Description:
The chain is mostly helical. Helices cover 68% and strands 0% of the residues. The chain has helices spanning 2-14, 22-36, 40-56, 62-65, 79-86, 93-116, 122-126, 137-148, 153-188, 191-206, 223-236, 238-250, 259-270, 277-289, 302-323, 333-342.
Amino acid sequence: MAILDTVSSVIERMDNDVGPFAERVVALLPPLWEESGAEHLMKQHIVRLLAHLVSANEGKLGTIAADGIAYHQGRHTVGLSTCTCSCDRHADACVKVTSEYMLDDALDLWIVVVRESASPSSDLLSLLPNLLRDDIRPRLVHALEQAFANKKTESIDAVCETVECLLRAASTLGGEPGTLRMTEDCMHAHLLQGFVDSIHSDYETHQTTGPNRKEPPKDWKNETNYISVLSQIGYGSSHAFRVAIQAWADTRSPPNQDGYKHVIEEFFTHMDAIVDSSKQKLACMALTKQLETDEVFLLGKLQDYIAMWTSVIRSLQGEGEALGHEWVQVPSCHDFLTNQLALDQP
């Protein structure tokens, strides 16, 4: 293990210069993996070394990563098999315990492989549904809530993006019931309440002017992220969207009877501030889907709806003309996985 640590440190220091030695290092790892047996500490060091090796050349080691974290011509898989085993309820107890110790390192390796691989593989994609299992999903959402509690911009961005991906996957695999289940998990972890509370604070700020104007919330810059998460819920299920807003309103003292209306108002107000056209389109479709509900006040927003539809369509048409034929290209593995989760978006 000391030798593995030393080699790993050398790889980190060599960075781009490690390329010529990569294959020889990789060839030495399979025997070590097999001889380690149930010794999870040794396997942890091997996985960390491989993660450093794959990320060292920023894409130049893509051929190594593209084999699904292959150790030698695709014959030995480590990181993916570890992640899969840790998520497999039918795995052998001894193997499962070993894999659970390695799960953090294996997921780090998985992330590196996704970023560096030139093309996706079925092994990489197969891990995504495991994250939505009933015995894993609540813990994952709770971990996201803890990261969100840090209130750091980079943490908030990562949390919102992850929650969006989970909601898209839940909608793809389970339809509206899947979206509702994922939404309920986020509510139980008090994650969505934080998003809605910030959106409502922005709404209150926009309703006041002059010396009596309320100060915007400290995280007002992240409002687009919060709206995107709620839009993903609203597009997947108008009922789940209403449930999420009502759950937040019931926690207020006194309960906010107009919470749903206020959030819808803020959506319309913030639409022009959304720079990302895909997020703007998602918010537009989420608002449009709310017309399925029996909310009478939405009929009074038809002028806003027409203005929103016109603006979003013009924006998308203009973007399409600017792209021309440049969009025809082979995506990286990271881009493919991101796009794969977004294929079911409007």
